[in-house]
Give the backbone structure.
Amino acid sequence: MTPIHRNSKPSPSLKRILGVCAAMSVPALWVSGILGNALSLEATAAFTVALILLCAMIPQRRLDATLTIITLITSISLTLCVADTALRLFAGPLVYYRAHSELVRQDSKHPGLTRYVPNARSDRSTFGDLAAMLGDPRHRVQRREVFETDERGFRTSTRDRERPFDLIILGDSFGMGLGSTQEETWTSLLEHNGHHIYNLSMPATCPAHGAARLALELPSLALTENATVIVPVYVGNDLEECTQEIDAKLSAESPSSLTSARIAIDDYQSRSPLRQFAMRLVYRWLFADPVVTARDLPDGACVLFYKPHVRAAQLSVNDVQHSPNFLVLTKALSRIQTISQKHHLAMVVVILPTKEEIYGWMLRNGSPDPAPQNSSPFAQAITTFCASQKIASHDLTPQFMDAANSSFKNGKLLWWRDDSHWNHTGHDVASRLISQALKTK
C-alpha cells in the first residue's frame, strides 16, 4: 500500500487565523497598563485592527514572514503581561516602598476621589518620598510602618465602634500621617488623649476633595453633639492641587456604568508594576536632580528638601488671591463650612508649614534663626479668607518654628530627613498644637 504523505505545515487559512488571534495580544498589553499613556485606547484598537487586516490581506508569498513578526509581537506582549500580573500578585513590597501606593484605589463610583483597600493591614520597612525620588539608598531612613484601613477604606482607627466620633479630619498626606507608623501619627496621639477620631484624609488631595468626602461619608457617621471638623491646609501644594479641573470632576453627576468601568480600568492600569519601575527610572533621569536638594548637617547626616515647596511658600499674597485655584480652594472651605453648619458641627482650619519653611536656614547653609517665623503669603491669604467667613483658623508656622529650634538643640528634627512629612517628634508637636487650637475654637 502506498503511504499517504500529509503536509504537517498549517494551511494558509489556519495561518491567517493564528495571526488574527496573535494580534489580540496587543489589547491585553494595553489593559495591563504597562505602556501607560504611550498608547491610548483608540491607538490600541487601530493598531490591533491593522494587524488583523494585515493577516487577512497579506499575499500568500509573504504570509510566513508576516506571521513571524506578529508572533514575535505576541510573545513579547504576553511575556510582559504575565510578568506584570505575577508582580501584582506576589511582589507587592518589592514594587511599592510604602503601603499607601500599594493599597490606594480610585473610587469608580465617585470620580476624582480615592480610598484604600478596605480592612487591609501592612507591616513593613519603609523610607521617605524624597529618598525615593533620588533613588540613592544612602539617603534612606529605614523605619517600620504599620498601615491599617477600616471597612470604608480609610486609614483610621475605629477601636470602639459604638462610641460616636468627636473629630473628623479632612486632610491630605499630613492628615493621615504618610510615612509614619499608625500609632505615632498625630491623630492616634490625639486619640490617646481622649478624642475619638474618624480620619477621612487621603494623600494627593486638597480641601476640594475633603468637601466631597465629607458630604459623602458624614450622613453615616455617628457624631457627638460638639463634634469638630478639622481641615489641615498644607502650604506646600494645596493651592497647586485645587484645580478647576478637579472641581469640575468632583462636581459632576453620578457616573454612568461606562464611565465607572473606564475609571476601574484606569486604576488597574496605573498600578502596573512594570510601568512603575519604568517611570521611576525616567523620573530619576529627567527630574530628580532639579527638584530634590540635599544638605549635610554637622554630624554628617543628610537632609533632603523639595524645591517646589519652596516656590509655593514664596508666592505673594496677591499672587495667591488672584490664582484661579485659590477660588476653588476657598469655595471648598465654604462648602465644608456649610455642611458642618447643617450638621451642627464646629470647623477649624489648621495651616501646616513646609519642611522648607521651618528649616529654611539649612537650605541657605546657615544656622537656626531664633527670630519669629513670618507666616507665608499663602497662609496669610487663607487666614484672611477664614476671618472674612468667620471660620476658625490657626497658622501653626510660628509654633512649629519654635518647636523645631528647641528640638534641634537636642539633636532632633520634626521631619524625617529623607521625607517631606513629619517624623514621630513632628507628629507629637502637631498633636499638641492642634489640641491647643481645639481648645480655643
User: Anything to note?
Assistant: The chain has two domains: 12-90, 117-439. The CA atoms of residues 207 and 333 lie 7 Å apart. The two ends are 104 Å apart (CA to CA).
